[in-house]
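Lab notebook, bench 4. The sequencing result for the construct came back, and we need a structural model before the next group meeting so we can plan mutations. Quick request posted to the team channel:

Model the 3D structure of this chain.
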Amino acid sequence: MVPTVAVTRYVTPLREGGSLPGIVEAEDLGTYVCKFRGAGQGLKVLVAELIVASLARRLEIPTPDQVLLDLDPTLARYEADEEVQDLLNASAGLNLGIDFLPGAFGFDSSVEPDAALAGRVLWLDALTANVDRSWRNPNLLVWRGVIYAIDHGASLYFHYSWPGGPGDPARFARQPYDVSEHVFARFTEKCRAQDAELAALLDRATLADALADVPDEFLESVPGAETPAALRERYVDFLGARIDGDRLWLPGGAA
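Done. Here's the predicted structure in token form:
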């Protein structure tokens, strides 16, 4: 399970993108990138982050450790920036913390990835419909010589349609993945060669384990899935349908 620790100090904002994550310190003496529940992107981004990071670990894709950060909004009184104050006040309770990797640098063309790792990252992104790993924004860090996949919140787009109805897992299972802009598009054949091996690692029990990492208060009820348990089952249904289907989503078409 993802551990829960209390935030002890807000350090500085990271003014990249629209969600205004921030560097915080916690009671375990760790330093984390905090993704706030009160940010404009909402709780579904945090849900996607937790689920996809859990799947990445099962596929041996390095990704920073995560914690749940218990935030006391009284920390806002010490911040001079009104935007930060508003964000902290709106984020009382559990938020998501990503382990801060000091000295890490962004992935670029000067780094040659291991082909097997690149194929696994591409496979996971195709499975989860991640639209945010292009050369413009690779969402990859290099730390101590290892490539880490970060920022999984743009995955699992299907859950944004659930307030309007349950959706169709079979339709998601058939949805192709556009690999043309992916930073690892040249590893498509390696990805396809690993398909059977990777799919075997993610059965429904494993998917359910990944959903267990998501706290109940991150799971907002929708029609037909009013409880956290029902919502977890819906995520398992959608991802399970994609894994068990005919692989039309694989880069390059059906396996």
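The first strand starts at residue 4 and ends at 13.
Will bring this to the meeting.
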